[in-house]
Amino acid sequence: MRLSTLLIAALSGVASAAIESVVMKDRHFYTESGKPFFIRGVDYQPGGSAEFEKGHDPLSDINTCARDIYMFQQLGINTIRVYSVDPSLNHDECMTLLAQAGIYLVLDVNTPLQNQHLNNQEPWTTYNPWYLEHVFSVIEVFSGYANTLAFLCGNEVVFEKVSAKTSPNYIKAVVRDMKGYIERHVGRVIPVGYSNADDLNYRISLAKYLECGPEGYIDFFGVNSYQWCGHNTFEGSGYDKLVEDYSDMSIPIFFTEFGCNEVRPREWEEVDALYGNNMTGVFSGGLVYEYSQEANDYGLVDIAKNGQVKTRDDFMSLQKAYAALPKDIKVPSDVKLNKRPATCPPSDDPVFDHITANHTLPWTLGEDMIKKGVADKAKRGKFVTVSTRATNYNIVIDGKVVENKDVKMTVKTSDQKVLSPGGHGQNTGGWDGNTPAADSNTAKTGTETSAAAAVGGQKAIVGSLVAVAVAFGFL
Ligand SMILES: *[C@@H]1O[C@H](CO)[C@@H](O)[C@H](O)[C@H]1NC(C)=O
Ligand SMILES: *[C@@H]1O[C@H](CO)[C@@H](O)[C@H](O)[C@H]1NC(C)=O
């Protein structure tokens, strides 16, 4: 016994910093220790979202991850967004390396493959058990990593008239099911949000629809925005209007995509505005579209066929813009806090113009999986000892070949939290496993909690988590 006591003492000696999970409080994100967390990141799907295939994804190959995480560190980011993953693959090494680099993941649960996304014109044809099995599998795998910041239930599902009529209550149904799964099978609250198309018709209407009611409401709203182009200003770009439009929301909001490419090279003046006092009361930062150069011409780097990565001008200018930001960004003291509407306005309320705000959600088709879990289909991810943190690929930054391509680690250990199954015991808007979802706008007495209260409920569990320090071998 004595020996093992000594061993534990020695281990805890090196277990200095470890990546903390990010939690929601009021309308912002914070680290568990209470530091405001503003998302500074990029969208990351080399090869493009549409080209996704089974058997390979951006977080499944350590050689590629080490290359790109090195680049993320040069850029100075704390978050990436990935659009599509294959939950049957192992992501432990890449997620561990990201955690050790202090980088969080915002993950979409869909792919372009059949049964892995909603058809936005006729969602009832694709909202089925196979689809939900995919979604739950993604959650099952990625909920094992403390640096999974959030899940996105969909990206631009509503984008024109037909989808605006048919899809909104299906989006909410998916959110309800995802939260139901997380509540039952994950030991912490992982926020679930939606990523909205850059379209004035849905900017407010869909945000309001997804925020309200007792069930299937989102925890944060993602905005894809390309409205600040070239040399512009807070007012000239319309960012002022954007902030005004969302100022009465109750939940965190951030850009899930930004970075207009109409004026080249991009100057990233909007970065200054986004992380400044004009916006930080309402916006929690954003994700630049996108890391790799693809057909649509938004890349920060070029990736060659042989795996060599080379910075473009936009990478260097973005690096400069990030470097010029203040080190600690604070939530403004005059932040406007709003209560989440636990009951939705009636469907014909003008706030829902341009969308069909049906407050009745389709009955869940994931009932059994929400009850029993999908652990037999997908393996919960975990942090591991990473054998390599350098890459074999060539890296060229600003025209110069890089020799030491090691990922610098900001933490000396990765702590593997043993997440207790069974959830946090609070209804955060997921399917509660009993009440038929006949009329989701009828508040269920006694179970309604705000996102903030859910975070409070989570605290107790965080305290009881067993933190296992896994010493990382330094050579
Ligand atoms: C903030 O807003 C003010 C007033 O609208 C404007 O003059 C200023 O340039 C803005 N600051 C930034 C960093 O965009
Ligand atoms: C609302 O959605 C439910 C579930 O999909 C559906 O049964 C119902 O017909 C819809 N109501 C309207 C008015 O479209």
TrEMBL record:
Q: Which domain of life is it from?
A: Eukaryota
Look up and give the membrane topology term. Answer: Lipid-anchor; GPI-anchor
Q: What is its EC number?
A: 2.4.1.-
Chain intervals for the UniProt region annotation (Disordered): 416-445
Q: Molecular function (GO) terms listed?
A: 1,3-beta-glucanosyltransferase activity
Query: GO CC annotations?
Result: plasma membrane; side of membrane
GO annotation, biological process = fungal-type cell wall (1->3)-beta-D-glucan biosynthetic process; fungal-type cell wall organization
- Mind listing the UniProt keywords for this protein, alphabetically? Glycoprotein, GPI-anchor, Lipoprotein, Membrane, Signal, Transferase
Identify the enzyme class: transferase
Q: Where is the composition biased (Gly residues)?
A: 422-432
Q: Which Pfam families match?
A: Glyco_hydro_72
Kindly report the protein's main subcellular placement as a broad class. membrane
Where is the protein localized? Cell membrane
Under InterPro entries, the record lists:
GH, Glucanosyltransferase
Cleaved signal peptide residues: 1-17
**Function statement:** Splits internally a 1,3-beta-glucan molecule and transfers the newly generated reducing end (the donor) to the non-reducing end of another 1,3-beta-glucan molecule (the acceptor) forming a 1,3-beta linkage, resulting in the elongation of 1,3-beta-glucan chains in the cell wall.
Q: What family does this belong to? A: Belongs to the glycosyl hydrolase 72 family.
Q: What is the name attached to this protein's record?
A: 1,3-beta-glucanosyltransferase
